[in-house]
Amino acid sequence: MELSLGRRADYAIRATLDLAHHPEGLRKAREIGEAMAVPTSFLPQILAQLVRAGLATSTAGPRGGYGLARPAADISLLDVVVAVDGEVGATQCVLRGGPCRWEDMCAVHLPWAQAQRAMTAELDATSFADVLELDRSLAVGDLPIPPELTRSSPPIAPTA
After folding, report:
1. In angstroms, rounded to a whole number, what is the distance separating the alpha carbons of residues 78 and 50?
2. Which residues contact 78 (CB under 8 A, 6 or more apart)?
3. How many CA atoms lie within 13 Å of 105's alpha carbon, on the beta-carbon side?
4. Whole-angstrom distance, CA of residue 112 vs CA of residue 116
5. Is the pLDDT of residue 156 over 60?
6. Predicted model pTM
7. Distance of CA 82 to CAs 2, 14, 45, 152, Å?
8. What distance in Å separates the CA atoms of residue 24 and residue 99, rounded to the nearest whole number?
9. Residues 19 and 83: beta-carbon distance below 8 Å
10. d(CA 95, CA 78)
11. What is the distance between the alpha carbons of residues 111 and 94, in angstroms, rounded to a whole number?
């Protein structure tokens, strides 16, 4: 099983991280796209959603650009994901693929919902100041990464 971000949330997180790296001034969409490998044709839509959600600001004109609407410490990963993808959580039954209703609740509903709540809580507890600090540490090789968390590590196997 793989849990991953959709393209919109991925690009929104990258754009927000770039803005967090540059709190002193405004950034052009082109600069953000180049720095974060986000297609510049898609980026204005993502940035507009962040502006509508109150997470970013937009200033028009030759000296304009985008910035964070509030400090990075006050913006969570969850804020950004919700801004572009909507509320986090399953709207369909995990096993049946149909709408999950109380009267048809499957046996997996409760543990799945608890796992979603735990993931949502972690995303909400992680600010962009935290992400920025981790990103800076990774850039200078100053952060020891446990082998089980690297991309090259084998998948997590169920415990017996």
Report:
1. 12
2. 88, 120, 123, 124, 126
3. 9
4. 6
5. no
6. 0.82
7. 20, 15, 15, 29
8. 46
9. no
10. 26
11. 11
Axis-axis angle for helices 7-21, 77-85 (nearest 10)? 140
Where do we find the tokens 């690009």? 11
Tokens 């991925």 correspond to what residue? 10
pLDDT at 73: 97
Give Cα separations from 68 to 1, 19, 53 (angstroms).
34, 6, 11
Average pLDDT score over residue span 139-156: 63
Helix/strand/coil percentages in the chain, nearest 5: 50, 10, 40
pLDDT at 96: 59
- Both tokens of 95, joined, read 């096993």
Q: Which of 36, 84, 89 is nearest to 56 (CA)?
A: 84
Closest CA to 2 of 151, 110, 122: 151
Count Cβ atoms within 10 A of the Cβ of residue 86 and give its class: 0-12 exposed, 13-18 middle, 19 or more buried. exposed
What token pair was written down for 122? 């972690």
β-partners of residue 75 are none
